[in-house]
Amino acid sequence: MSYHYDERIDGALVTHDKSAVVAQLQARIPDLQLLYEQEDLRPFECDGLAAYRATPMLVALPDKVEQVAALLKFASAQKIPVVARGAGTGLSGGALPLDKGILLVMARFNRILEVDPEAGIARVQPGVRNLAISQAAAPYGLYYAPDPSSQIACSIGGNVAENAGGVHCLKYGLTVNNILKLEILTIDGERITLGSEALDAPGFDFLALFTGSEGMLGIVTEVTVKLLTKPQSAKVLLASFDDVEKAGAAVAQIIGAGVIPGGLEMMDNLAIRAAEDFIHAGYPVDAEAILLCEVDGVESDVQEDVERVEALLRAAGATDIRLAGDEAERQRFWAGRKNAFPAVGRISPDYYCMDGTIPRRELPRVLKSIEELSNEYGLRVANVFHAGDGNMHPLILFDANAPGETERAEALGAKILELCVAVGGSITGEHGVGREKINQMCAQFNSDELSFFHALKAAFDPDGLLNPGKNVPTLHRCAEFGSMHVHHGALPFPELERF
Question: Which among 311, 327, 342 is the end of a domain?
């Protein structure tokens, strides 16, 4: 992809002698594991967005809070950028390293410190896998609700950084709705506690501010999450449609009727066929679109909701409706959806996963526009998304070895995100901005808003050392890429040099 850290527009970085930095860190923190040989750095060149790659100056793999604090103090004093990384499953290039910086890998912070079934909480280190929390809570009849598709591998620290969601976030919320407390370290190594185990904490909600901040404000060292009681009953309906727009319209009708499903997911024909070939979930490969609708709760309420949803789906034009007959079939239905991304990866050399959000009422119109853009750019698009909250994941299929296709895929992705903004949505729902969408931030926000974001970051990180060049673009970047808001023909900040 075309984005790279450009010191002209993203901010100058100090160049350090790697061998000197390694020697100083080894002297200051002798028990800290460091990687600095070229062959050892290669596995850390990218996160889940493999199209963007960079080699860090060195990698640090701490396993103690004291090590992280000491490293941050050193980096702050020496003006060395620090990029935090969890499991490396992120899809926006948020953990992409800098060749002049330290990559701080938190994977060894992987202990579940406490599960308290009476309080309904778990205290975990940031490197703990999302799914491992639910597995640890299962003996008590509890679970952790956010369930991103990568939950078998992604870490809770990364979930906090990106405010991750999942197929059940419509009813149970994103990460920000399911964490109670964070222990963090600032760039100068100061320990801070955000939130509490109580229902609410006084003062400003810094816990919510930090969640989704993409490693730009501090480093998470401990997370306290809420645990929920497993629903008494959960049932899934799989509805087939002969038209994508009908499926989109059905979503608004279900929510408009007052039903809040545990999950409400949509896939188009290209995604259906890819998932069925990969997982054998029992999807109808002749359908133009399917909706997966799960209702959960008390058995009597679930049965009533199933009947209501089935009637709504038929009225919306569903050609076939199947109710999962047992738990095994329910899990198969969800396995197809949760494996849609790797399934698409089997039918295309490369794909580019988008993450825009739109108002639910705009689903039919936006899906039609994406189809038109797909034809215009000559690239196939598989639509997979959290239909209930309008979080879209169009997968743009391309071949990086074919001349011009990478650039077309990137341009098509930008158009889709700009379309999301135009209908009242956002350029991201749960994958974060990272490097992938940083140019589109210039279309989402005006110069005053971006200036405020920079001021907010500076309050936590005055020298801009934590994950620079991500999430919030400089005004120079917006001017360079021509996306800065223009009001009445006057470009803000005319004194900025246009490169």
Answer: 342
237 lies in the same domain as 314:
yes
The answer to whether residue 473 is domain-embedded is: no
Q: Which residues pair with 234 in a beta bridge?
A: 296
Q: Is residue 463 part of a domain?
A: no
Q: Which of 373, 392, 422 is the C-terminal boundary of a domain?
A: 422
- List the CATH number of the domain containing 388: 3.30.70.2740
**Structural domains in the chain (count):** 4
pTM above 0.85, yes or no: yes
Q: How many residues does the chain have?
A: 499
Q: What is the mean pLDDT of residues 362-378?
A: 95
CATH number at residue 17: 3.30.43.10
Region 180-202 average pLDDT? 92
pLDDT at 131: 98
Point out which residues pair with 361 in neighbouring strands.
none
CATH number of the domain bearing residue 164 = 3.30.465.10
Residue 458 structure tokens: 């500076």
- Does the pLDDT at position 492 exceed 50? no
pLDDT at 490: 47
pLDDT at 76 > cutoff 80 = yes
Q: Among 131-145, 250-264, 419-433, 479-493, which range has the highest average pLDDT?
A: 131-145
What's the distance, CA 108 to chain centroid?
21
- Inform me whether the pLDDT recorded for 3 exceeds 60: no
Report yes or no: 341 and 267 within 8 Å, Cβ to Cβ.
no
For the cut 60, the answer to whether the pLDDT of residue 491 exceeds it is no
**Do 208 and 141 form a contact (C-beta atoms < 8 A)?**
no
Instruction: Find the helix packing angle between 363-377 and 405-422, rounded to 10°.
Output: 160
Structural domain boundaries enclosing 165: 112-229
Q: Which one of 68-72, 345-349, 396-400 scores highest in mean pLDDT?
A: 68-72
Category of 404 on φ-ψ map: left (φ > 0), alpha (ψ -120 to 50) or beta: left
**Per-residue confidence (pLDDT) for residue 159, from 0 to 100:** 98
Which residues are CB-neighbours of 37 under 8 A, at least 6 positions away? none
